[in-house]
Amino acid sequence: MNEFCVLVVDDEDEFREMTSKILTKRGLIVMSAESGEKALEILEHKRIDVVLLDVKMPGMDGIETLRQIRSLKPLVEVLLLTGHASVESGIEGMKLGAFDYLMKPIETDPLLEKLEEAYEKKRLHQEKIDQALLKKHMSMPL
Amino acid sequence: MQRIFTLLKQRLFGQSRPSMSSEELRTDFTRRYAHFRNLLTANNNALQAMAELEKVYYGGGSYRMAFVRSKISTILINVYKMISDILAMSDGKYADLETTFEKISNELDKIVARKHDFVQGPLILTLDKVRRSDRDQAGEKMANLGEINALQGIVVPLGFVITASATRHFLTTEHIAEINRLLQVFDSEDLDDLYKTCEEMQKIVMDAPLPPDLEELLHAHFNRLETESHSASRVAMRSSALGEDTAGVSFAGLYSTFLNVEKHEIGDLYKKVIASKYGPRAIAYRRMRGYRHEDIEMCVGCLVMVDALVSGVIYSRDPGEQESEVMRINATAGIARGVVDGTTVTDLFLVGREKPFPVVFSEIRQSQDSGKEQLSGSASLTYSQIRKLAETALQLEIHFGQPQDVEWSYDHQGVLYILQSRPIAATPAGTKEKSRSMQKVAVPGESVEKPLLFGGISASGGIASGEVFLVDSDKDMREFPRGAVLVLRHPLPEWAPLLGRATAVIAENGTEAGHLATVAREFGIPALFSLPGAMSVLTSGQTITVNSSGRAIYQGRREELLRQNVAKRDIMAGSPVQRIVTEALQYITPLNLNDPTSSHFRSNWCETLHDITRFCHEKSVSEMFNYGKEHRFDKGTAKRLVGEVPLEWWVIDLADGFRQGLDSGSKMVRIEDIVSLPMQAIWRGISAFPWEGPPPISARGFGEIIFQSTMRPDLDPSVASNMATKNYFLISKNFCNLSVRLGYHYAMIEAYLSDLLTESYVTFRFKGGAADMRRKAVRARLLADILKRYDFRVELRSDALLARVKKQPVEYLEQRLEILGYLITHSRQLDMVMTQPHAVEQYREKFLKDIEEMLSLKESTIGESVHE
């Protein structure tokens, strides 16, 4: 499996720590943040491929965080996660360009599968951009 | 001539889009194909969630709001994905789906997130001011007691109610939010977790400070009671919940009641009663019966303690029996608590409901038990006390309009106090019957007769009887008689209109998640799916009894089974959660778009999420299907199929249709270089039998063809137009689109073969050919007949034929492709002979014989003969 970097964002300590542990064990590079603000700070400085983002958080909620991530790092894929969000926030998240939406509690394998899919999408997207850039550079006179 | 040719091309291939290079084509195909797959996955997920929601709703079991919310979210998100995918596949056609979706999701959000409107009122109401209309403030129990208080000749204790407004004053939004959080995260299946969570929630309530103004009011009213009752310095504090307004939902004994409460305890015990709303039993019960915690609000009644000599409960009709003509009294010395709890031995009296209320049965258990001295005859109640109780119970029954369960006390002065009156929680009708029938149903062998068929998937439960009617075509559909049992091969949504007329549905395929299953549940008719052999074992006109719950079909009308078909008692009936689901389902499951050929099968006719999924699914298939039709490709990039190959065949690889390592620069490809499953299957059909030359034709037939050929040079086999000679395969490993012109006709085969049944399909279109319209129609009909024999769904409009099979295993579809390969190759012979009816028959027989022979051969043998 490809190694990629996941940022787990959830205000619930127990969930954040458990998930980080499990994903690390499965060979991913995992970082975590307990709030939307903290997540944005990490994204600013570190290379993150996929964000696993809880919708319901005190302070900056998941939807707002998603909005900011999309404008800050449009290439990063975001997987929304919730236990008890309103029906609306799911659609809202998808409209804002979340990769997908998962319901808590979630089992490891489906989560891993979704994370990989999200990473694959990001990778292909990145590749396309790289190729386009390459083409552009090649066609430019020296 | 060129103009005619262009016109024809447009008719056959639709509006031409600009030509694409093979690389562009491949990219475009890959992109569409990814959307197609996503759409199918989302479709499955949405339908699955709909089925799950309906299953709990119609299942009569219990379900939670969290479940409902999560299913509705899943449905919405997946439908949203489907819309995004279909828009991407169709270059933005059907944009009005977004508007419809927006509307529906707003409505659903309103339904799911709906809150009660609470009116702020006084913190305390005195009981003599309370009536039934005050239940929003006083809660059910105290509102009833206030109502009773106003009745002539009935006495209730003095008291007051700490209202719902007071509760909201006491528990702030922060407290509620914290409780909500705890409620939402805990695992209801885990008892330890339940108890732990309840403890935490109750602690939140107990730790919340009593607002000073409320505390002051409590004491003031306590003092007032003391003055008015002259004696009492103690009260009973009783829960009076608000929102328990459903008959048959008792909520009995879930919340705390405190007796002999003294003034200094009142504040603390008030909190304890409020906290009892979050007790484990209360939470479990509410969840089971479909109440959210926000549906229930606690009020507390404070009643002066009655100095009870004897207390108990009277039922105005004995609840142990249906339509009982006796009342039941349970009585015990002292206060009534033990009677209600069921912890104390009580005296039992059964009393006639008519004056003079004779005691028809009594069992005096108190005196033996306690050994206490009892009044006359050692019974706890005298006859005149019994009569007064019976009169009062009847008065309450008449006042409230239904049998009552009444708590009472006689004090030492002989005054009868009514402490509570509520409707009797009805025992479900036919409970015994049901459990018996369940047993019988579960063991079909126990019946006198063996079932005709047994097994399958119960897609909609129930038992029904009627005459079988097999439906396999549109004609059958029109002839379907009212009240018949609908028997199908595939439970396709197209058959849905019949469910209004059918008494039951049986299908050889399908599951509980399909569209038709949904509709069957909506109509409440039994549906038994995935029952192989149903179409052959059952014959039209035969009378059968379908027991879908027991997954069995019996010969004849089985009265004893039908009698067992008692309506299930719905544990959630009338509950707030059920009301929410009832309303929400209106926007989700009804299917209005049944018929893809109808002029109403349009995006702006979608009214529900089910409609949208149906529409998107249908359109996604046709977007994929039309791929080869609507996309012109640069023919220079195609590879020519070489080897022992008749005619010219060209292959364009869209994704992974060639074996690895094939020289991509080569202009040629051999059949063994191709790994596309559907193309291989078609090719086996094409090459299974050697080509025969055109048969001799009648003079008239020949003249006709000559005439047609002069009109349309592209149809003349001797004039090599590029369309007439080149046949194109567009392939990937699982996909193949073949457009072919053999002789005079145009045919297209498209297939996607996958292990996922729902996304597999084979489609065949056939049109045109030389000769006049009548002969074309005869030929198309012959092909249609043959294809129907092999389970294709066929649509025929004059000479245009559309045949489809979908949702079948790969091997099955491969055989269908072989058949199509055979037919497109050999039907060209028909062009010349279609005027001779006997010749048509001859060909029909020959074709069927060949096909049978071809299918009976081992695939490998055919494969080898192709390679040689």
**Which of globular, elongated, flat, extended, rod-shaped describes the shape of chain B?**
elongated
Radius of gyration of chain B: 38 Å
Considering the protein shown, what is the CATH homologous superfamily of chain A?
Response regulator
Q: Estimate what percentage of residues of chain A fall within beta strands.
A: 15-25%
Number of strands of chain A: 5
- Main β sheet profile of chain B: 9 strands, mixed
CATH architecture descriptor name of chain A: 3-Layer(aba) Sandwich
Radius of gyration of chain A: 16 Å
Q: Return residue spans of chain B where pLDDT drops below 50 for at least 5 consecutive residues.
A: 1-16, 368-377, 426-447, 694-725, 859-868
Q: Using the coordinates above, name the CATH class of chain A.
A: Alpha Beta
Structural class of chain A: alpha/beta
Find the structural class of chain B using helix and strand composition: alpha+beta
Poorly predicted runs of chain A are none
Strands in their spatial order, largest beta sheet of chain B: 22-20-21-23-24-25-26-28-27
Gap from first CA to last CA of chain B? 42 Å
CATH topology of chain A: Rossmann fold
Largest sheet of chain A: 5 strands, parallel
Brief synopsis:
The complex is a heterodimer of chains A (142) and B (868). Helix content of chain A is 53%, strand content 18%.
Description of the molecule:
The complex is a heterodimer of chains A (142) and B (868). Chain A has 142 residues and is of the alpha/beta class. Chain A has a single domain (5-139), classed as Rossmann fold. Chain A has five helices and five strands; from the N terminus they run E-H-E-H-E-H-E-H-E-H. In chain A, strands 2-1-3-4-5 form a five-stranded parallel β-sheet, with helices on both faces. In chain A, helix 1 (13-25) links the parallel strand 1 (5-9) and strand 2. In chain A, helix 2 (36-45) runs parallel beside helix 3. The termini of chain A are far apart. Chain B has 868 residues and is α+β, with helices and mostly antiparallel strands. Chain B contains 29 helices and 28 strands. In chain B, helix 3 (65-89) runs parallel beside helix 20 and helix 3 (65-89) packs parallel to helix 21 (609-625). Chain B is elongated. The interface between A and B is medium-sized, with 12 and 17 residues.
